[in-house]
Amino acid sequence: MFPTRRSVLFGGAAAVGLTAVGLPALAATGTPRLAFPFTLGIASGDPSADGVVLWTRLALDPLAPDGHGGMPNRVVPVQWQVSTDERFTRVVRAGVEFARPETAHSVHVELAGLRAGTEYFYRFRVDGHLSVTGRTRTAPAAGALGQGLTMCFASCSHYGEGFFTAYRRLAEDQPDLVLHLGDYQYEYAAKAADVRVVAGPETRALADYRLRHAQYKSDADLQFAHQVAPWLVVFDDHEIENNWASDTPEAPDPAFPARKAAAFQAYYENMPLRRVSRPRGAEMQLFRRVRWGSLATFHMLDTRQYRDDQACGDGTKVDCGERLEPTRTITGAEQERWLLDGLRTSRARWDVLGQQVFFAQRDLTAGERQGFSMDSWDGYKASRDKVASALGGTRNGVVLTGDVHRHWAGEVKESYDRPDSRGVATELVTTSITSTGDGDESTSATVLAENPHLKFFKNRRGYVRTKFSAGELRADFRTLPYVRTAGAPVETAASFVVEDRVPTLNRV
Known about the structure:
- The protein is an alpha+beta fold and 508 residues long.
- The protein is 16% helix and 26% strand.
- It has helices at residues 5-10, 165-172, 206-217, 220-228, 256-269, 333-345, 381-392, 445-450, and strands at residues 42-45, 53-57, 76-83, 91-99, 106-110, 119-126, 129-130, 134-137, 149-154, 177-180, 231-233, 288-292, 296-300, 316-318, 350-354, 371-373, 397-401, 407-413, 423-429, 454-458, 461-468, 472-480, 491-499, 506-507.
- Residues 1-5 and 10-21 have low confidence and may be disordered.
């Protein structure tokens, strides 16, 4: 029995019954044979024109309290294969990586030398056990527009607050690429209102973060979404703790540097990231640029690690003068230079910021007085003005955002004080996968009235599906009617088209 392309996309367990064709047996080591170790699934990520990262993490008991997944304290050889067909009759790369206890038996295979713009299939084997088959792809060659790109993006998946059905629906849309914009997991301990039991205490130590990631990765719907396409990931706050900013925790905590280092280590172990992102203590290189031929360039940002502390004590504030200080930064100086230089020199048809928090101005207070979220770019106006100006110099600037647990769509303006001000980019904001539960049919009419550049709002869970082509970007806001029970259908609540060289949202 071999998996078919359809079984990879819709079966979710395509490798059952497979024989390991083309995978030579490793020499016996005299150690006991492991039980099935691929309980956390497989993934790929950070595609380039000639390569991609393949990932897995071995675990016999994902919820083992020590965070090691029930694995023995020894190095385990892991075989891997890459093929151009799902039957693995045309294997183009194969090798062995070593899963080590000190990295929670995670494996990162960083491939190069593959063909540009090509679909590949991959799998792993340990002690005769074969993983499911994953589908991935390389980016088009430099200068190539390609045949278009279907990309889905998501954020904010709280395990206890709902079922991950939205991940399965995302996978069924057959994207070429998936972006996850933060809050992949939440640090909180279980609470009474949860519909699924969160394992372990609030995450503070490395074992806690490893356990929490393992519980999330054990979810079949999330595994399926990783299985069908490469991912680009960035963290936001809850991968460590709520609303942290650089070296400043939400509340005073002398152990915060150690907590951050533990969270970064576990995040790397559980994501398909390149070696350049391997953390060094409480530092992690996460901002990076991924080119999809000449069609799109994805500038993946880190708006947590280098930001100034939130202005005026955080929260939503009216008349906060501190947020206007010209030296305040949400990106840090180095990342800002990198981003502005990349936008200035870009020749892409679409320049896309993959980032975490609301970018466009969003006045949350009715009437003449203006109230803004200090955790968003509104709390760092000088930073936003510089980036917005640079986006206005590109052919097509697009900002992708997570964090706020609601769908929004808006236009980034040169000045928000003048309703007829020139548009410089568009912003698409995805709702959460589960966070805050089912949602409702509220309209947020007051906020929309205060912000005429914001064109859409929806308080349901889901994700955004985008389709990039040479002539337009189409965004479909996908929603589920419920997540507190499993199996919800998906529908498109609204669709917008952005035409080439015209940073305006057109509802279709």
